[in-house]
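User: Modeling request: complex.
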Amino acid sequence: MSRRARDERRLAWLLCAPAVITMLVVTAYPTVYALWLSLFRYDLRFPGQRRFIGLDNYFSVLGSEAWWQALSNTLLITAGSVIFELVLGFAFALVMHRALVGRRIVRTALLVPYGIITVVAAMSWRFAFDPTTGFVNALLGLQGDWLATRGSAFFVILLTEIWKTTPFMALLLLAGLTLVPGDLLRAARVDGASGPQRFFRITLPLMRPVIVVALLFRTLDAFRIFDTVFVLTRGAQGTESVSIVGYDTLITRLNLGLGSAVSVLIFFCVLAIAAAYVRGLGIDLSRRMEP
Amino acid sequence: MTGRVAEGRPLERLLWGAGGTVVVSYALIPVFWIVSLSLKRSADIGDGHFFPRRVSLEHYAAVFGDHRFSAALLNSVGIAALSTLAAVLLGMFAAYAIVRLQFPGRRLVLAAALSIAMFPPISIIGPLFNLWRTIGLYDTWAGLILPYMTFTLPLAIWTLAAFFRELPWDLDRAARIDGATPLQAFVHVIVPLAAPAVFTAGILVFIFAWNDFLFASALTSTGNARTVPAAIAFFTGSSRFEQPTGSIAAASVVVTLPIILVVLLFQRRIVAGLTAGAVKE
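Assistant: Request completed. Predicted assembly structure:
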């Protein structure tokens, strides 16, 4: 290797080192520490009773109904919101793509839910559905508390999540739509292809890579859902997500051992989802970033 | 604007226009709702109307008179700004190396940034909570800025790398051929070239840091470092039986307006930054 190339490598590593080291320190170290803590009985309220118990915390978590309910809730919220967001996001992207006037206005408006703090968005929806302060019941002529029963509480959670994150999906899909050559669509139109045919036979296949990336981002993000559930129900009415279970065990009940086992299990769930996407749909994100 | 949009039949155009109206209402109704709630008098909070019958600023007065809120606001601004600064600074170096230099770890750094961005933050809350209490970082600014690096840094690297890739870097060589010193070429050519990208990455990172609730709620407990999202979520009225709806609404509006303003001013850049890493031919 030439001296020049070696110098270039050295400079590159020097420039990357601060960022890489910071990322390792703030994630790898706590993750390993969580793994370690999860092997102990360790309750901060009784620190004297700390002792090594192997995998017992994992058996406790996996044997508890609360974990499985939270996991199925989280998967339900993830699947429900991501599917809705994809459909709605596509509709919004098409509107932005086709709108003759006001395309900019639509795009700007959509950035508002994206930029707003999740806690604030959840508060707004909570107050809207509240039986005393809200306008939804008055509008629909209904009585009753939406957040007091499981089904309707899930509806409000999903609505909030979808409202907040569909714009991201729509903007990604819009960027993807601009990659579909207009000439191709025009030619298809001349050849007599109907609107739906053009959409499903041309637009959709060409946008596949963008769609897969958007789905991966949103699925992993939705699986972490915490803020929305915390503000809307605090996990009541059987609406706990896995992150809420982790938070309550760690921070509210100060049970570091058990809580760390929950954290590690969540980590493996995320890993499994990511692996499923990469295997199943064959994405290689880092290659897309090659200069 | 492309020629394609002009070809639709009038009915078709009307439908797309109506669609646009629907999308705008979708995006703005919850925002108008919380603004209107914040402007209602306490007596009208429960009237079930969408718009206030009488506009009152009492909740804003209450919120700004509450030292917990002003402390939270200061914490939010300071912590988000410092996290942004740190992430963009470190991200800038890494992104430059990734885009401009030949070295074997290029894809590795990007892949690491991406996997860390996907990381569930709840997985590190417990250890950080324990560690921060031991070493005195619990309920401090640094105690939040450090864990924020888990998402701000990957976002900065990713966005900056995507932007840097598009820049005509070789212009500095041209400037040096024209007699500029390396420093002059850097200051007058490279810096103005890269500044918009750095600025956009900064906005995106700031929005993320500003939004965080999980770390803020787990790693802070007082006005020392508690940020606005956590303060709003844990807001309590003066008595246990009073729902502080009006104050929460007013506080929400105060922290939302700056973001909306930024988004309006820089919308084109923000959209470019959001989609930069994901969409590539």
